[in-house]
Amino acid sequence: MKKEGTLKVPCINVNDSVTKSKFDNLYGCRESLADGIKRATDIMLAGKVACVAGFGDVGKGCAQSLRGFGCRVLVTEIDPINALQAAMEGYEVTTMEDAASKASIFVTATGCRDIVRGEHFEKMRNDAIVCNIGHFDIEIDVKWLEKNAVEKIEIKPQVDRYRLKNGNHIIVLAQGRLVNLGCAMGHPSFVMSSSFTNQVLAQIELWTKSDKYKICKHFLDALEQNKYGWFWECPNGGQKCHYRHAVPPGFVLKKNKKNIDEVKAEDTLTIEDLIETERAKLGGNLPRITLEIFLAWKKAKIREKQDSEQKERDRKRDEFKAGRSIGLSGRDMFTFRPELAEDDGQDEEGEEAYDLSRLEGEEDNAEVVREITLENLMAESLKAGDLAAAAASPIEASMATSVPIDEKLFEDDDLEDLEELEDELEELEIK
């Protein structure tokens, strides 16, 4: 309920408390299970084969109890860790399908639905005893017995004997409900005191620290309406609000719950269900689909497609012959006029032949590319005091032998102008 957002009030799951599950579930069931079976049936347990479905805390206590009375105990468990624990304790781990024909006593302790079903009842030995010490009455399919049994006899209150069509009898204790409460007085009071103490402590915690567990209604409304942010202020006193302004892990808002439900519905819908749903929309009186009908339908569809393509080709050919070639693709034009498709010639090796005569006029304007080396870039010699007289490189045949320089570039007049400019700048800096 917490994950789905349907939990309306704060609560504490006492069953998750270690001081409850490791004592009440284990040691309480170890004593009350055998008490309930013996009060209801007065049978001797020693030497019988018993099957315990589930090896959690409750299943561990039940297996220890039956083994203590001399039963050979089989354990069915889907959790690999718990199953390995059962094997290490010396129990035979098997499946309910295999144990149904071997055991004389069946005890369900899983908390799950439909652990013992109709196919298991039909395999059981005559007068097999079936009881439940898990949650409620969902683990044993008593409705199947009520519907398929030939006869039902109430031996005494909470003890019913069903006769099946194969002639065997099944004894069900407490109508599939908790056998230690329906046929006995439940757990001893001492071990129950620890469970009740946990409940009292949980109530004290919820009462004295309600602010810690209750979420502010205005905060939730702000989240639902996308109004919560840095500048949001709680109408219930702002920062002085006594309730929580945070959602617990896994909490789902109402606006998101609809999307999650839709995704779950899509995930659970199998392809078979989808086909049947769509088929039901077509109405009744539909023929059954067989392989022959499907193949005939497929051939008809292929033939229909081929006829449609042939009609389209004939239409395009008629339009092309009539001179209405607008809208025709290049492929259609080459299809209707094959002479337009001329492949280039190929040489003996299969590569395309290239006409070298096409390159005759291309060399007229070709640029000459020379290899540049370090020697070409180095001057042969430098004349002292004359940069313009630098000797040319070996490229002098195609380049100028010297670089002309304007000797009047730096005359005295220009130097005087520069000195005056410097004096003016110094005066400006001083000012």
TrEMBL record:
InterPro entries under this entry? Adenosylhomocyst_ase-like_sf (IPR042172), Adenosylhomocysteinase-like (IPR000043), Ado_hCys_hydrolase_NAD-bd (IPR015878), NAD(P)-bd_dom_sf (IPR036291), S-Ado-L-homoCys_hydrolase_CS (IPR020082), ZC3H15/TMA46_C (IPR032378), Znf_CCCH (IPR000571)
For activity, the cofactor(s) needed are: NAD(+)
Record pathway = Amino-acid biosynthesis; L-homocysteine biosynthesis; L-homocysteine from S-adenosyl-L-homocysteine: step 1/1
A Pfam match? DFRP_C
Residue ranges of every copy of the C3H1-type domain listed in the record: 210-248
Q: Which family does it belong to?
A: Belongs to the adenosylhomocysteinase family. Belongs to the ZC3H15/TMA46 family.
One GO biological process term: one-carbon metabolic process
The EC designation for this entry is 3.13.2.1
Q: What class of enzyme is it?
A: hydrolase
Ranges annotated as C3H1-type zinc finger: 210-248
Task: Return the protein name.
Answer: adenosylhomocysteinase
Q: Name one GO molecular function term.
A: zinc ion binding
Q: Which UniProt keywords apply?
A: Hydrolase, Metal-binding, NAD, One-carbon metabolism, Zinc, Zinc-finger
Q: What SUPFAM superfamilies does this protein's entry cite?
A: Formate/glycerate dehydrogenase catalytic domain-like, NAD(P)-binding Rossmann-fold domains
Question: What are the annotated GO cellular component locations?
Answer: cytosol
Q: Which domain of life is it from?
A: Eukaryota
Determine if Zinc is one of this entry's keywords. Answer: yes
Q: PROSITE patterns from the entry? A: ADOHCYASE_2 (PS00739), ZF_C3H1 (PS50103)
Its organism's taxonomic lineage begins at:
Eukaryota, Metazoa, Ecdysozoa, Arthropoda, Chelicerata
